[in-house]
Each structure stands twice: as C-alpha cells, then as structure tokens.
Write a structure and sequence with these properties.
With 63 residues, this protein is of the alpha+beta class. The chain has one helix at 17-28, and strands spanning 5-10, 34-39.
C-alpha cells in the first residue's frame, strides 16, 4: 500500500497561517492525501540569554 502524505512547514509570523493553508489545501487536494502542516516561528534577537536548570530526585519507599 502506498502512503500519500504531504508534510509542510510554514515559516510565517502571521497568526492562523496553518488554518488558512489547510482551508486552501482541503479545497484542491484529493481526499486520500494526508496533510500534516505546522508553523515554525523564528525570532532573531541581540543580547545575552541566561538560562538555569535544577535537577532533583525523589525516593518513595513503601514498607
């Protein structure tokens, strides 16, 4: 069996761009083609980014 799959990455900052694309594609593509679309947002900024993290553990003992 052949899979018919379209995977799309949208690089638009416009809110709702994925919904607009889905509405367009559902009107023009055949029903047997599976559509996967996601929006990728990238922001470039100048400055210093400081990150921190914590690691902790828990031990549960039942007697």
């Amino acid at each position: 069996m052949v899979k018919s799959l379209i995977d799309i990455k949208i690089t638009s900052d416009r809110y709702g761009a994925v919904d607009l694309l889905y509405n367009l594609l559902w009107d023009i593509l055949p029903a047997h083609i599976q559509i996967t679309a996601r929006q990728v947002n990238t922001k470039n900024f100048k400055g210093v980014l400081s990150l921190g993290s914590t690691l902790s553990g828990t031990k549960v003992i039942t007697i």
